[in-house]
Amino acid sequence: MFISSLEGVYYSFKVVDQSPLTRFVVTQDGFIQYLTWSKNSNEWLVMVTLQRDGSDGYGDCGNCNDGPKCECLKGFRPMSPENWARVDWSSECVRKWELDCGNGDGFVKYGGMKLPDYSHLAASRNLSIWECEAVCLRNCSRMAFSKIDIHGNGGDCLLWFGDLLDMRDFEGGGDDLYIRMAKAELEAIADAKRNR
User: What pLDDT does 90 receive?
Assistant: First the structure.
């Protein structure tokens, strides 16, 4: 059962009667493990560890596509290109142009995304996409927003603060994410469209 509220987002599982005691755990490395309790040894036994590929771990990559290769989103670059050339994606992606809040910052839409980590998130209900953007733009610490329909009421406006972690590019799925970008990046995108 998927539960989402202003206090948190999580899954809940029910085990039927006479079944062994089981649980799902997300490890500090970002793996999802399915465990069952062994009455014989009085310990939890790992039955399955789920991880799709090498870029599926928490915060391992700036932006991962469907393969095991990390990439930075358009408008970002690796902080350490040398490490990335050696297939070490532990360093994050940084902006090509620094933000200058109030001087032309705007948002770029990235479609088909696994949304960033929810640890720095605020939510507002029943805002249009334009109202959501305006709320996000008014506060310089808000780095991204998305509009998703969790509760079946037309949508919730989600606002991210600080670093955007644990995103993934899903081909043929995912949500739209609008990331705050500097005026210079927005101008570069507009110039590229004009020159096509």
Answer: 67
**CATH code of residue 161:** 3.50.4.10
Q: Is residue 75 part of a domain?
A: no
* Residue 157 counted as domain residue: yes
pLDDT at residue number 102? 81
Distances (CA, A) of 22 to 30, 31, 38, 157, 170: 19, 16, 10, 35, 30
Q: What is the DSSP string of the chain?
A: -EEEETTEEEE---PPTTSPPEEEEE-TTS-EEEEEEETTTTEEEEEEEE--STT-STT--SEE-SSS-EEPPTTEEES-HHHHHTT---SPEEESS---TTSS-EEEEEEEEEPPPGGGEEEEES--HHHHHHHHHHSTTEEEEEEE-SSSSS-EEEEEES---S-EEPTT--EEEEEEE-HHHHHHHHHHHHT-
Pick the last residue of a domain from 35, 50, 65: 50
**Mean of the pLDDT values across residues 62-66?**
54
Domain assignment of residue 43, given as a range: 2-50
- 119 falls within a domain: yes
Amino acid 177 reads L
pLDDT of res. 73: 83
**Which of 19-23, 63-67, 69-73, 178-182 has the lowest average pLDDT?**
63-67
